[in-house]
Write the structure tokens for this entry.
Amino acid sequence: MTTENTPENPTRPILSYIKDLPNICSLAGLGCTLLAIYFLIVGLYPAAMIGMIWAVAFDWADGLIARRMTGRTGADRKFGGQLDLLIDIVSYAVTPAILVLSYADFHPAFLPAVFVMLVFGAIRLSYFSTFGLTDDSKYTGLAIDNNSIILVFVFMFAGYFDRSVFAIILAVTGLCLAVLNVSQIKTPKLSGKPINVVLLAIYTLTVSMIYCWSLL
């Protein structure tokens, strides 16, 4: 499929968009997600939790930087938005799904729950990409980045349960979050306010220290 070169589709090398600072942040978050997935597969869960929460931190940071930057073109903003969308499906749908499967020792009984998490995640992101925020600047449905924030917190209680029981708890939590993602509830755009970014930074550092301690 080809498109004509128009002001909306300027001729620029693909890799030239990497020089955009918000996109660098987005890709750093993708790197954290890759590490999280790797550690989930090998069963090093505290390290995986650190990767998951830092992915959120970089995601929020790229939006804050983008809003404060001057001189970004429409193409930069459009490309950055699409890059965010593709990274979000990996960070906030695929990674939680792997978390559930990995902790359940990849038992096939958990596949239906994981499939629902993936489907609802994809639908939620497609809806937001199409319609954006409501008129009062709120999300329709729970923003999908909250999935990782909540799951990382819930996982702190893994040691209080038998592994098979906690695998079910993770699956139920993931399903509940997935349902909220595609619900009609209105939720504020938390990442749009600097104070919330600061609070997430504090949460990220606190969570990282807790999980680092458990690795010692």
User: Anything to note?
Assistant: Helices lie at 21-42, 45-68, 74-103, 111-131, 145-154, 163-181, 194-215. The beta strands are 138-140, 186-188. Confidence is low (pLDDT under 50) at residues 1-7.
